[in-house]
Amino acid sequence: MAEREAEAQGLKEASGGAVPSPKGREVAYAWVGRTEEVIVFRLDGRLLACSAICPHMGGRLTIDRRAGKVVCPWHGLTFTLPDCHSTHPRYRHLRTYSVTESQGHVRID
Amino acid sequence: MFGSTSFTFRMTIRNPSAWPTDIVWENAQDLEHVGTLHRRTNYAFELLDVRPSRDGTALYESLIFMVRRRLLGLIPIVTFGFRRVVGPGEIWQIEVSPLLGITTALRSTLERNGADPSRTDLVDSMEVSMPRILRPLRGFLEAALRRHARLQCGEDETVRARRHELRARGINLPASILNEPLWEKAFGRGGAPATAGAPESRSA
Fold first, then answer.
1. ipTM metric
2. What's the pLDDT at B76?
3. A34:B178 CB<8 A
4. Contact across the interface for B173 and A56, Cβ inside 8 Å
5. Considering the domain A2-108 in this protein, what is its CATH number?
């Protein structure tokens, strides 16, 4: 059911550190190892990746393109793009990842 | 509740969750998410004051808050509330709408599902008091409260599923209050007002 919901929202999901390249406004999620979930997206054509786990309580982060922020849908904690910083005193930043794209897939390093 | 000018009725709302009591309890205590996760039923939430849990067994002992509720998904109603964790799996809450003169006294409890103990039933017992003139709207209000609770419980299931998944992966992010209450923003942690009162001392 989660896969169908993800498909309906234009999300791409994969595991193992490689994910189909998100196109346009799509976002992609991937588990890297057992404990790190990453969100991959494009911003002004540039491919970016950061943690998809909100450091507060673990909500799955999304991208608010209009606000230019990474947002947690649970409590509204936000991180600025592209640096993934927050003004919250306890949650200053999200982990970012370097990514390489080839043949329609993104590799998360 | 407020004498002869008011009309009072009681109602109970039950909503099932597919998750065990510990996960549902964690989510039940969290009220800050109503203005973001529950946007279909609320416009905004503001934490006015928090009293921390004395023994650390709950997320807090009590909260004072303000919510802009979304009556039937559209009509904005500002309410003020006081909520207290009275024991494991039990919360009491008073919420007042000054505009409508409606007060709800809520006793919210969790019960293990009889057929499947790994599931939980959320039981909200309410006493609603309102001006007599609004008595014909009782059915409307009951329907609105049931809809509100059902929608929120459905949205909360996604949170519970996620928390369960994270725990299974060994990711343990304990529940905590995210935002600084308005009281602390204005007065600091138990201190005096930051700007009001005595004038700032100045060196000569």
1. 0.86
2. 95
3. no
4. yes
5. 2.102.10.10
